[in-house]
Amino acid sequence: MKIYRMLLMLIIVMMSCDQQTSNKRGDKRKIGIFKTRKHERKKISIDQKKLDEKTYEQASIEDEKIEYSPYDILESKVKILRNDIESAKGIFVARGHTAPDFTDFNSIKDAIDSGKYSFSNILNLISRQTRTITAFPKIVDRIYASLGYNIDTLLKLEEIIPKVLNNNYASFDAFNLYDSFLRILSNLYDLNHKVLYDIFSDITLAKLKSANNLTDIEKASYLLDRFDKLKVSLVLNVKEQIEIATRKKDKKDIFEELKKAYGQAFRSGYLALDIEYFNILKLYSGIK
User: Fold this and answer.
1) What is the pLDDT of residue 31?
2) Rounded to two decimals, what is the model's pTM?
């Protein structure tokens, strides 16, 4: 009986040891499986990263392959320059500044004296030199537009005018200031508007695109660049001289600074711009 019990205990011990060994092997197998899966996940992550990088590089290469035609470049230039003007005017109006339309007034004087419109000194100067009431709002808008509807510059000009004229808008000084300075600003606007909206109108652009004459398109783009560069330089010169003039106290000194803006450098710049305009007009005549 004792022998039977000993044999039974021995069998139980052996079975227990075998179970522990199996569990240990099973644990190792499980650990091995876990390690393999972790390695696979890491590998998948690396492969995905490489795929993403490849996709990005491929997209970049495809972007670089996109080529813009000479016509696309010209059309883009025209639209950007138009948008610059329209956006500037939009900001100008949104801030409460607008050219008088006189719908609710009997005369220019009543409109200005009402206080409804900004820059009364500029308006008074223009109104005394403008003969037709209907043309007045357009002239005002041209002058504002020629300066890019820049409120700071217009405020400085507004400050200068009474110092020069002593509120005498019928004087020779008033005529001189308007005729030699503001009139040229109005003419500057006219040239720019004709180039962007008349010469390079949507109809003209469509003709250029349809004809697909690379020589004409590239020449048009080149002339537009030259014209715009001269115009920007010209306006910058005017703004700088207005800025300098605001720091002067004496009437004579103010006039001297303004003369530099509408004097030799300004007139030379305007004449050069006028030449570029006629070069563009000549090309336009050939396109038609």
Assistant:
1) 40
2) 0.72
